[in-house]
Design goal:
The protein is 22% helix and 22% strand. By secondary structure, it is α+β, with helices and mostly antiparallel strands. The chain has one domain: Jelly Rolls (Sandwich). Strand 7 and strand 8 form a beta hairpin. It is globular. Pfam families: 2OG-FeII_Oxy_2. Keywords: Dioxygenase, Iron, Metal-binding, Oxidoreductase. It comes from Kalanchoe fedtschenkoi (Lavender scallops).
């Protein structure tokens, strides 16, 4: 993991300056990255999959991809969110999810801040929904005031979690964390291991720069994971369909 973090993090060329007088990140070689998008397209167009990967349909029109053998519990769902859903949850993440009693990284310094997206001059890093997670002690603090996860988000998480659940079981989402990442940001390698029952997956959905979902359950919960770098240049992102969703004057704060 540390080797990959060094390989794919953002490095800047001191001689390359944009018209905004900002340093430009160097090009990153992603040829060794496992690209589920191309695998999904290959599966759709040619009904072929690379060695060690298999796919199963868990909902009408949705495929879940898994590794054979050494990665039990890891499931990747490309195209999990429609454009409308990406816009919906992108707005919710910026406007509603940081609202008290949900906590953000600003709580320690400033306390709860209503309408944080408009009021805060500093960058948001995370906000929590449902049961509140105590980051310093790495546990859930049931004594903190909280609201249940929004029903629509809970239903979406249940649907995404289905490929990792037993047929007779249904996921019951109780807590969530929203990480706010911008260009070249990173999320250091970590474990999500504070839940009692590791047989249930955690569901990671990315929006609005991507529409994929990742599930990790069972033994996979013991694997370190993170975000080495966020690429925002046109070569690696597909956001043309989203630009019109956030072009209204009310979206200026985004």
């Amino acid at each position: 993991l540390r080797r990959a973090e060094k390989q794919y993090k953002a490095y800047y060329d001191t001689d390359a300056i944009s018209f905004k007088k900002e340093k430009l990140p160097r090009e990153v070689d992603l040829s060794d990255v496992f690209d589920f998008k191309s695998i999904s397209e290959r599966c759709d167009q040619k009904n072929e999959l690379p060695d060690g990967v298999y796919a199963s349909e868990f909902d009408v029109g949705f495929l879940a991809f898994c590794f054979e053998g050494g990665r039990p519990g890891f499931i990747f769902i490309p195209g999990a969110l429609s454009v409308d859903q990406q816009c919906q949850w992108g707005r919710e993440s910026l406007l509603n999810f940081p609202q008290p009693p949900n906590r953000t990284n600003h709580n320690v310094m400033y306390g709860p801040i209503p309408d944080l997206s408009i009021a805060a001059k500093e960058k948001k890093v995370w906000s929590t929904l449902g049961l509140q997670f105590n980051w310093s002690e790495r546990n859930y603090n049931v004594a903190l005031p909280h609201k249940k996860i929004p029903d629509a988000l809970g239903q979406l998480a249940k649907r995404m979690a289905a490929p990792a659940m037993k047929i007779s079981e249904e996921c019951q989402p109780e807590a969530a964390v929203v990480n706010y990442l911008g260009e070249c940001d990173t999320l250091e390698g970590h474990l999500d291991d504070m839940e009692v029952d590791w047989s249930k997956p955690f569901v990671c959905m990315r929006s609005p720069r991507s529409c994929d979902a990742v599930l990790m359950a069972g033994e996979e919960r013991e694997c370190f994971h993170g975000v080495h770098c966020v690429f925002t240049n046109e070569q690696y992102t597909e956001i043309d369909n989203l630009k019109s969703c956030f072009s209204h004057e009310d979206d200026a704060c985004f």
